[in-house]
Design goal:
Blueprint lengths: L4 E7 L5 E5 L35 H9 L6 E4 L10 E4 L8 E2 L12 E6 L5 H8 L6 H11 E11 L9 E9 L8 E8 L6
Parallel strand pairs: 3-4, 3-6, 4-5, 6-7
Antiparallel strand pairs: 1-2, 7-9, 8-9
Length: 198
């Protein structure tokens, strides 16, 4: 053992040990230098994406949407994990299944079982947090009413309780809170009216 190194060993948090040096601080091993032959192998961390449902929210709202998780069209999906139905967002950084504007969805009329919308709640949220134009709730609901099947349901999470779009009727309104000192949000659930026979 070289001069200046004690015989006792220090155990680190990772379970590894190394010799302690004389002086006040033990010699902590340095992390290895990472080298990449090509820059694209580095896989930099993605930019943070704002927007996420409260924990457990989807499971609680599914009975009201009357569908399974895989059948929900999530408009303005934000950081929603893969496997939660069909995720639609205008931001590529959110890594949606379909990149589209919620006001002009690329789906056939009456083609989805249920729609869940969680848009920016105010103009400054849309512009400052997400870098997008503010989508008015009425326009999002109009488009959701077009793509949902007759008898299907649409839910929107917002600070307001928007009026039903043509063809939708209100079913239920919940108050949603993520904890003390946080603002309340409304979860408004609509149902698309059945088409009438002529």
């Amino acid at each position: 053992m070289s001069a200046g190194v004690h015989k006792r060993r220090i155990s680190g948090a990772d379970g590894q040990t190394w010799p302690a040096q004389r002086g006040d601080a033990p010699a902590v091993p340095k992390p290895p230098v990472m080298c990449f032959l090509y820059e694209d192998l580095a896989s930099p961390e993605p930019e943070p994406i704002f927007g996420q449902y409260p924990r457990g929210f989807i499971a609680k709202v599914l009975p009201w949407l009357r569908c399974e998780r895989r059948e929900v069209l999530h408009v303005c999906s934000g950081a929603l994990s893969p496997g939660e139905g069909l995720r639609v967002d205008i931001r590529q950084g959110a890594r949606p299944d379909v990149r589209a504007d919620g006001r002009a969805l690329p789906f056939r009329s009456s083609s989805v079982k249920a729609v869940l919308i969680d848009p920016p709640y105010a103009r400054h949220y849309a512009e400052d947090l997400y870098g997008v134009e503010y989508p008015r709730p009425s326009r999002l609901l109009f488009e959701a009413a077009r793509v949902v099947r007759p008898g299907g349901r649409v839910a929107i999470v917002h600070y307001i309780t928007p009026a039903p779009a043509p063809g939708l009727r209100a079913v239920k309104i919940f108050g949603l809170s993520t904890g003390f000192d946080y603002p309340m949000r409304a979860v408004t659930i609509f149902e698309r009216e059945q088409e009438r026979l002529l």
